[in-house]
């Protein structure tokens, strides 16, 4: 039985502020490699997964959000994604025995990106938008907060925290101002954004991690009118499949694919879910035989 985690939308109707809160617990427990990472790398992956879920609160329709960091330092790759069905998955690749350094020490070649892939009903391939996030500050939440404030021009406050059991994230964002609407709304509080942002600044990552959702929200916003709305139910899930591995081999071409055979078996292990796919020579040959090629879904 999958254990679901919950994404919660936060609405401050009088303040022109919206937000989201997420706690990942079951999803991390189900993520096969999560327990194997060094503490800082583990926390970074937990935070990136929480960030992907929080960012998904702002998108509509069939969309997948991913947070990806690559560098030539000890931390080679960080990847976290959240799909429209609430499936989260992620991984870290690092040099053996090394932990994750602060983000602003990853070196000049490090790159952090947020990618939004969205698809309309019935569409096989959709649109892809990627934003490059400058590595400002030591922490992932600092970099993302800076990114939204500068490139998206959406003032944002974001706090992320994770340990071996749990990842939590809290995001608030100033809604695009609509002057006419604000004039019409008698109870609109023009100082709302500044106040909620300052309240957020009183919370540390350690405090976010130590307390549950209602305790944190009550502590910060007990004097504000705040509505909580359930968002995505989240759980660990992987999109790998037999068809996708077959498509990968077809993409390599027959001779390259055959090079993967070791003792007569080509094995592919999914790094996200640890599932093992095995192909013998006959299986591989069949992939390149025109009559056996089904119209399979090769979409990633
Ligand atoms: Zn998988």
Q: Please, could you describe this protein's structure?
A:
By secondary structure, the protein is α+β, with helices and mostly antiparallel strands. The protein folds into 2 domains: 5-236, 3-Layer(bab) Sandwich (Hsp33 domain), CATH 3.55.30.10; 242-292, HSP33 redox switch-like (CBS domain Like). 29% of the residues lie in helices and 31% in strands. A hairpin with a 4-residue loop joins β8 and β9 (167-174). The longest helix has 18 residues, at 39-56. It is elongated, with a radius of gyration of 22 Å. The protein starts with a strand and ends in a 13-residue tail after the last helix. The relative contact order is 0.18. The mean pLDDT is 90.
The helix/strand order is EEHHEEEEEHEEHHHHEHHEEH
Second CATH tier, the architecture of the largest domain:
3-Layer(bab) Sandwich
In DSSP terms (H or I, runs of 4 or more residues), the helix count works out at 10
C-alpha Rg, in Å? Answer: 22 Å
The N- and C-terminal alpha carbons lie at a distance of 26 Å
The structural domain count equals 2
How much helix is in the residues? 25-40%
The H-level CATH homologous superfamily of the largest domain, spelled out, is Hsp33 domain
Determine and state the CATH class of the largest domain.
Alpha Beta
Strand order of the largest sheet: 7-6-3-4-5-10-1-2-9-8
Task: Report the oligomer.
Answer: single chain
CATH topology of the largest domain, anyone?
A: Hsp33 domain
Shape verdict: elongated
Beta fraction: 25-35%
Largest sheet: 10 strands, mixed
Low-confidence region ranges: none
Overall pLDDT, averaged? 90
Bound molecules: zinc ion
Q: Can you count the beta strands?
A: 12
Q: Which structural class do the helices and strands define?
A: alpha+beta
